[in-house]
Amino acid sequence: MGGDHAPHNVVTGVLDALRESGGRLSVLLVGQEERIHAEFAKAGTGGKRAGMVGCTVVNATEVVDMHDAPNAALKAKKDSSITVGIKLHQEAKADAFVSAGNTGAVLSASTLILGRIKGVGRPTIGALIPTETTPCMLVDAGTNVDCKPRHLFEFAVMGSIYVSSMIGKSNPSVGLLSIGEEEIKGNEVTLEAFALLKKSSLNFVGNVEGRDILKGMVDVAVCDGFVGNILLKFGESVPGFLKAKLMEFAESGFWNKLRVWVAQGGLRAVMKNLDYQEYGGVPLLGVNGVSIIGHGGSTPKAIKNMIFRAEEMVRRKVHLQIQEAMVRHT
Amino acid sequence: MGGDHAPHNVVTGVLDALRESGGRLSVLLVGQEERIHAEFAKAGTGGKRAGMVGCTVVNATEVVDMHDAPNAALKAKKDSSITVGIKLHQEAKADAFVSAGNTGAVLSASTLILGRIKGVGRPTIGALIPTETTPCMLVDAGTNVDCKPRHLFEFAVMGSIYVSSMIGKSNPSVGLLSIGEEEIKGNEVTLEAFALLKKSSLNFVGNVEGRDILKGMVDVAVCDGFVGNILLKFGESVPGFLKAKLMEFAESGFWNKLRVWVAQGGLRAVMKNLDYQEYGGVPLLGVNGVSIIGHGGSTPKAIKNMIFRAEEMVRRKVHLQIQEAMVRHT
Predict the structure, then answer these.
(1) Short-list A173, A153, A155, CA closest to A164
(2) Residue B47: pLDDT above 60?
């Protein structure tokens, strides 16, 4: 039931995932069953019901709204699709949980029901950002707003595991996002976090600046969720800005219009690099399980990618690797 | 003596400014006089000495390096171009001070020598960012890393004065940079700052998100210098990233290469929007005087623009307006 276009986009994305996976996957669709079945009726499954394409519909009568206050909503709506779905994962009836619903609610319910990994004070979400080289994981991407140095350190550990496991980069480089390269540059929290990172066995390369991310200078960029959220949303707005400026340029004369028209294919391809949707959701790291949170506006494609990402996280046992890493680093 | 290409870029920029100003301006060039005169000899002034084109060279024997620790350097180098130059302004022998030197040193010396405006706890630098509509002032742009709510409030007051005075926007809208529009979203500091801004007479529109800046949703976006610095440097790196991705695209086939080639004029024009250099330095707000700090890599054009900006700030009496505003808001 999650996301701005639920259940339509979710059902469509799930069907696409099942089709592409060739029988490898089965999906439990959790939510108001009538609405889900209705969606199936229009979704072009050739009249097939959910069960016939690898789906099981699990009824959950309540819906946490995108604008609900997370904790209050979870308390008031015990039979929400979020709570029911995560419980299925906790009871090992599902290998992973995926949602495009209320981010805060998914986060709270995952943390509460699955439990935090030992040594993790704050579970975190990390976002993969395209760069000039390989993607960089920005962690925390918006969950933990006021952080202690220890939390930033945990983000670094979890981000490193994710990148090495899922991107296949061994011993990923970790940078601490700050306002200068020198060790003495930073705010109160990052200065202390620097010391923790420096004495750890992580591949810590020191401070990195805002300009280093897109250059691909590090595999993991660590920051608090306040900075991470603002940076990610700023990045998301760049394509719209460039488009507006290009339109202005096109309006400035016939030849310029022609130029922009000729160029637009390339531009669209490049802009796609900045479209985080393509990457399909962000993983919640630090809980005892696999939980992926999607954008409220997730397209069917994003939903599909989230499912494949969850599958891979299960296969690579990312959360078990984090458990081991937290033991090593404590 | 300030900047990575001093004194060459400074002298060239000054000469350009004098040429364009048509006798309106006179400039005191502060630094090691021999090196400055040597620069004049090669700078194509047709053999004219400094004095003949509206320049006075003021000797200052020492140079604060770009990598010097600001306060230690100012203490050790009493006869630096920064200290001598700002003293000239304080003694009313100059109407303003402009430098592309060590940012921290210019900041410290300006604050120390000119003094803070009454009611200003933390002088700040603000950066004008191009948007889809009119420029937005991001304040603080990197000076004050750990801020109290009151400091963010002061930034809002000073940013509003700057934008209304220099951009000519009356009653500029002020947004508090945060992680969600709702009043309850933010970190500990911004939540308190929100309350201060809300009850003030500023045109406060509430929280804005990272994605709202380039859309031009507000005239002044308030944040601490840690966030401001990271965001600005991230923005500066976008053109390089897009260029790299476009080159990749061009390499992917003849027609794509042709497309990029045809488009590049437009792209360059658009990228220029993201080139903060064009804007020529950032003003230091909250001191009793006019002090403008340039990028270390300032081009002659940036130096020239800094001089014109300083001239305009003097003409519009921005620092006196801030003095009045601080009285009104306290």
Answers:
(1) A173
(2) no
Q: State which residue of chain A sits closest to B235, comparing Cα positions.
A: A211
Whats the size of chain B, residue-wise? 330
For tokens 């921005």, what's the residue?
B318
In our burial notation (b when 16+ CB lie closer than 10 A, e otherwise), range A15-47 reads bbbbeebeeebebbbbbbeeebeebbeebebee
- Residue B328 distance to chain A (closest CA, Å): 31
Where does the pLDDT of residue B66 fall: very low under 50, low under 70, confident under 90, or very high at 90 and above? confident
Separation in Å, CA of A104 to nearest CA in chain B: 12
Chain centroid to CA B83: how far?
19
Q: Which residues lie across from B136 on neighbouring strands? A: B129
For residue B8, which amino acid is it?
H
Q: Looking at the complex, does the CB of residue A232 fall below 8 Å from at least one CB of chain B?
A: yes
Using the Cβ of A72 and the Cβ atoms of chain B, whether some distance falls under 8 Å is answered with no
Chain B interface mutation, best of A229, A243, A245, highest count of B Cβ atoms under 10 Å: A245
pLDDT at A154 over 60: yes
Identify which of A214, A233, A266 has the shortest CB distance to residue B237: A214
Asked if A54 and A256 count as a contact pair (C-beta separation under 8 A), the reply is no
A230 falls in which pLDDT band (50, 70, 90)?
very high
Residues 6+ apart with CB under 8 A from A64: A1, A2, A70, A73, A74, A77, A80, A81, A82, A101, A102, A105
For the residues A185-194, what does the mean pLDDT come to? Answer: 96
User: Which residue of chain B has the CA closest to A177?
Assistant: B230
Give A55's strand partners: A27
Phi, psi of B299 (to 5 degrees): -80, 165
- Average pLDDT rounded to a whole number, residues B231-248: 87
Q: Are B213 and A237 inside 8 Å of each other by CB?
A: yes
Can you read off the two tokens belonging to residue B48? 């004219």
Nearest CA in chain B to A260: B263
**Are B227 and A225 in contact (CB < 8 Å)?**
no
Which residues in chain A touch residue B122, judged by CB atoms under 8 angstroms apart? none
Using the Cβ of A138 and the Cβ atoms of chain B, whether some distance falls under 8 Å is answered with: no
pLDDT beyond 80 at B44: no
Q: What does the pLDDT read at residue B281?
A: 85
Question: Structure tokens of A17?
Answer: 């995932």
Question: Mean pLDDT for chain B?
Answer: 90
Q: Cβ contact (<8 Å) for A211 and B226?
A: no
Residues of A in contact with B230 (CB under 8 A): 177-179, 209-210, 223, 227, 231
d(CA B134, CA A111): 43
Chain B neighbours among A 189-228 (CB < 8 Å)?
190, 209-215, 223-227
In Å, what is the CA distance from B94 to each residue of B80, B89, B294, B309?
A: 17, 4, 18, 15
Q: Does residue B185 surpass a pLDDT of 80? A: yes
Average pLDDT over residues B59-73: 89
Which candidate from A186, A187, A270 shows the least CB-CB separation from B246? Answer: A270
**For A291-304, what is the mean pLDDT?**
90
Please report the ipTM that was assigned to this predicted complex. Answer: 0.90
The C-alpha of B147 sits at a distance from chain A's nearest C-alpha, in angstroms, of 10
Alpha helix positions (H), chain A: 8-21, 33-42, 70-76, 81-90, 103-114, 149-162, 188-198, 225-251, 254-272, 300-315, 318-328
Q: Which of B134, B110, B208 is nearest to B124 (CA)?
A: B110
Nearest to A266 among B132, B146, B259 (CB): B259
Q: Across all residues in chain A, what is the average pLDDT? A: 90
